[in-house]
Design goal:
It is built from 1 helix and 4 strands; from the N terminus they run E-E-E-E-H. The protein is an alpha+beta fold. The chain has one domain (6-58).
Amino acid sequence: MIELAAIKLFIPLRCEECGYCHDTIPLEDAHDSPVHCRECGAFMCAWEDLEQRRLARTGS
């Protein structure tokens, strides 16, 4: 299996389907790329959602 580069999340992302809490997620290059749970495969959000969440937290 190929390991993708990952980024560390400042606010963990919890899967609503299985409850797994992610503190890192694979690095993607497109804002509309989907983010899936690595445990159950459920769609959690788009990269754009994570970026908006980061901006809201840091204000930058």
